[in-house]
Every structure is written in C-alpha cells, then in structure tokens.
Design brief:
0% of the residues lie in helices and 49% in strands. It is mostly beta strands. The protein has one domain: OB fold (Dihydrolipoamide Acetyltransferase, E2P) (Beta Barrel), CATH 2.40.50. The protein has a five-stranded mixed barrel with strand order 1-2-3-5-4. A hairpin with a 4-residue loop joins strand 4 and strand 5. The model has no long low-confidence stretch (mean pLDDT 93).
C-alpha cells in the first residue's frame, strides 16, 4: 500500500447540477510532485456529499495511504487511511 504526502484541498464540481459537490485533491510534496501537480482522491460517498474521512482535513498537510492508480494522463488514490501530518 502506497502513501502520498501533501496538502488536501477541495474543489466544487458540477455547479448548477443535481450532482454538484466536492471533489478532493492532494497537492503532493514528495516524489509525486515531479510528475503531478494534483492527485485526485476518490471518496466513498455520493458525488454531492462531503466525505467524512476527508472533509475535516481539507487545507491540512496529510499522508494518504491506499491504492495509487497512475496512467499516462491521470493519477488517482483510493484512500484506505488518511492521517494529518504534525509539522
């Protein structure tokens, strides 16, 4: 299981639709920073809902452990565990 460190942020997607809601992204600070500016973090709830695991950590430095899915054009992490980094 891989872990990625970075700052967790949220973007509102689907504005003006019935699926409007938060999408979570990680700005990596270590090895992935050289290849990606942002990493999509999958959530376990409906599109329009806040994720109870991720929402309290928005804007904070975290380490996310889970399955990393990297292709030529995208990268996504499917979180199993999210922990705030104490800097």
């Amino acid at each position: 299981m891989d872990g990625i460190k970075g700052r967790l942020k949220v973007k509102i997607v689907g504005q003006g639709t019935r699926s409007e809601g938060p999408e979570y992204w990680l700005e990596p600070i270590e090895e992935y920073k050289n290849r990606w500016n942002e990493i999509l973090v999958r959530k376990t709830v409906h599109l329009w809902q806040d994720d109870p695991l991720l929402q309290p950590l928005v804007g904070k430095m975290v380490v996310i452990r889970g399955e990393v899915i990297e292709t030529k054009s995208t990268i996504t992490i499917d979180p199993i565990d999210v922990e705030e980094l104490k800097l």
